[in-house]
Amino acid sequence: MNANLLPNSGNVDGSDSRRNMGSWISGCCGNPKTQLIRLWEFGSSDRIRFIFPAKMGLALTLLSFFIFLKEPFQDLSSHSVWAILTVVVVFEMTIGSTLRKGFNRFLGTVLAAGLALAVAQISILTGDYEEVIIIGAIFTVGFLTNFLKLYPTMRPYEYGFRVFLITFCFIVVSGYKTGRFFQTAINRSILICIGAIVALAVNVFIYPIWAGEDLHALIVNNFDNVAASIEGCVDAYLACIEYKRIPSDILTYEPSDDPLYNGYRSAVESMTQEKELLGFAIWEPPHGRYKIVKYPWKSFIKVSGALRHCAFAVMALHGCILSEIQAPPKSRLIFRSELQNIGIESAKVLRAIGDRIEKMKQLGVGDILSSVNKAAEELQDKIDRRSYIFVNSDKWEIGGRQQDGEDGGSSRRGRGGGNEGDSDFNNNHFAIKSQSEAVLDLRYVEFEIHSGESSESMSPGFVESKETSNETTKPTYHMHTAINAQSRIYESASELSLSTFASLLIEFVARLSNLVDCFEELCKIAQFQEP
Amino acid sequence: MNANLLPNSGNVDGSDSRRNMGSWISGCCGNPKTQLIRLWEFGSSDRIRFIFPAKMGLALTLLSFFIFLKEPFQDLSSHSVWAILTVVVVFEMTIGSTLRKGFNRFLGTVLAAGLALAVAQISILTGDYEEVIIIGAIFTVGFLTNFLKLYPTMRPYEYGFRVFLITFCFIVVSGYKTGRFFQTAINRSILICIGAIVALAVNVFIYPIWAGEDLHALIVNNFDNVAASIEGCVDAYLACIEYKRIPSDILTYEPSDDPLYNGYRSAVESMTQEKELLGFAIWEPPHGRYKIVKYPWKSFIKVSGALRHCAFAVMALHGCILSEIQAPPKSRLIFRSELQNIGIESAKVLRAIGDRIEKMKQLGVGDILSSVNKAAEELQDKIDRRSYIFVNSDKWEIGGRQQDGEDGGSSRRGRGGGNEGDSDFNNNHFAIKSQSEAVLDLRYVEFEIHSGESSESMSPGFVESKETSNETTKPTYHMHTAINAQSRIYESASELSLSTFASLLIEFVARLSNLVDCFEELCKIAQFQEP
């Protein structure tokens, strides 16, 4: 079942509500047939959407038979509306939330009834001051209830406090009108109990919907999302995909269509929903595959939290793709196989853990991280051997000042040229910059990419600055125009940005080990099967 | 006023609720005096906590006078409990949420009353089938209401649907019992209107609490938090603060005591609360400083989203501090002033924008970003001049294979040694690794930090690997033990990690410009004052 179905899941931006309702209503009036088809499609895409309302309708129908009761149940029958109202108020989609609300309602009602009866007794005993006592009691109880529910640890019981206040006022007021405080309290309690029992019975015995199962499915789904996102990020980086214009939704962290972005965002955003489902799931008795009393849902949340920590690393990787400063495609190709390997292996690890969580099985023998760690080491090793790609020694202070530029330049060139495998990867990489608008406001110069030294077709600005920096170094640096200085700066930044991507990818791999630890802890606590 | 006060703000982990309530109750019974003092302190820390309950108590008291009405209002008086219940249900802390709930309740009640009267008429007309019609209607209405409220655009009206169903059931059932459908519907509607009007009047005219103001304060507060976090991150990085053991709360993205972490986390986490407050604020009429009809709260949210995008960059920076792979302290010192400058200037920009949002003023003339951009350029320029710090050419393929190791080594040493300013920053940086547990499971070797080449006191493992790599290069690399290979790999990774931190900091600066754009848009739409 899709966890997003929960009415309280809060995925909808409340700010759109007025507009949406307006457009929905106008759409409804405009073409009822289209709307009916749309509603039918909405319902049939997940049968829960038909089952839940039908269950509620059934519970209401069962209780409405009460109103036809004759003597000797006339008294119950005349208050039967309370049982129906209880169902409307308490009946929630999942069993956990129904139980929690039912508990709140029960406790609130019982305590309020007790207090109301005490107040009634006192008011009757005082005689002339009856009205004063009643009004004073209503103010005091209203004040205290609303004060206490602000207390942080009391917040989950907000509903209970509300019920308490409603019941208290109702009993005191109707008792005063009819003079039958005790009768009112008893009748109301019995009918609320009947309503609660019917609601619970229908909810549990007819096609039960468990919050725990939703939570489980949500977490498993997040693993797939993050796996797709990390794989997609690495692929996009290697394919040198650039955002011509970054969607403003991404820049303000709003929902967007971008699949890479949605992958990690769903894992980050599901936190609120997980917390909510956890609050319900802990109320649910052992059932189905979840046979342990006090099932360790908190450990599931912890694994999901560790996944979120990984998702933030994916977010940082995506930041490299969004960034204005982009590494030259040629340099990325050098690390192609290593980067891709990490992407594939990480996604495998995530999917494997997600799959084990779904099947509630432990990991097999052998280290699940061995392949991905190996891939990370290979990348790091290659970085170690080729880190000259990241740096541009033209402007090195240690080189430029001590020996003349020609010497430094030629020694590098000699080394680079001699290595056949890397003949096209010398230090002359050129910056490629995205057209994104999320940039430092610099008027940069664009360069062409080229491989051979013979076919150098650079922009004049670039040639100039290169020549100058080879001839003289720092002393004349400040004489360059601002544009040239900035283009130089961003050129070398682009060379380092590949190393940033690589470091962040290695950091992502490091975070996987924490995830595996959390998962193994979960295996023990939740008694997952041996593989 | 502290926005966290809102009862629905959902900041409390529902999973703790059972335990918390237990401990609170037991604490309450154990030492009532301590608990009372604690409650008093809780209330007096923010006077809203006393004012809100008092307002609610007042509204209840005003309505409870209804029950003492004599003829000719006997009929109203006997149903007066409905007015009181409406107050309990509709009265929310902020004006926006009260208005929204009141609207839901009004619409739900009116539509339900209309439908119930129609059903009643039909059931009376059919005579013998009255019961069948009533039961059928209850099931159908129960089904449809609960089905429609699952529809995504309908979710904000969940409460309205519930009220609709309650009212419908109530009128149909009580009407059947008393035979006075019409009278029931009219009486109930009048009393609900009275209750709603009293609730609204008390809420608006006595110490009004506006959701919009809370939203405003929340966003301004986030700017301060992120500013403190970015400054703290840079300082912590330069002070080489390491986590001996990373709090598991951070690894699973749970609340923690860490101030750096809390700074950006609060900005990320406030999203849910902002959305909720936005949903209320759009219902509020112009008031106080917010004089525009349909105040552009959405633009505030957009600025906050852009700030969140920056907060994610701070999160990535914090990730560098948490990472196992740490740059040598000595290298960090080289970039000290540039890094610190960016930290200070970025925080200044954030605080300036936060301050302007608070005072609802535009930015002054001149580019607010000029200092921070300049600082970023200086950093990039220095990176450009000193990028040799990030790389370790010992293992460069282009060097090692073509010429013997001695030659390559000495030429580097010659260059490094000749530059007095950098004499202690040659390529021999040693890896410092945190003891964090969020690491690749590598048995790494620890090295001491030292500056002069004369006092080299390395671990044997390191000396061995260094000598070997100087004598022979790649061909013998694979003969090293795994430990040596890995320690080498992490040594060079540590050198690049400084460049990662620097790139991420520059990326943070780039994201500030998007924030400024969003802020300027807000200035126009919300008609902020000229400076």
TrEMBL record, chains A, B:
A single GO cellular-component term from the record reads: plant-type vacuole membrane
Q: Which residues cross the membrane?
A: 50-69, 81-99, 106-126, 132-152, 159-177, 189-210
* Cell location: Membrane
Membrane: is it a keyword of this entry? Answer: yes
**Record keywords, A-Z:** Ion channel, Ion transport, Membrane, Transmembrane, Transmembrane helix, Transport
Q: What is this protein called?
A: Aluminum-activated malate transporter 9
Q: What is the lineage of its organism?
A: Eukaryota, Viridiplantae, Streptophyta, Embryophyta, Tracheophyta
Query: What is any one GO biological process for this UniProt entry?
Result: malate transport
| Membrane topology field | Multi-pass membrane protein
- Coarse class of the primary localization is membrane
* InterPro entries in the record: ALMT
Q: Which family does it belong to?
A: Belongs to the aromatic acid exporter (TC 2.A.85) family.
Q: Where is this region: Disordered?
A: 399-428, 454-474
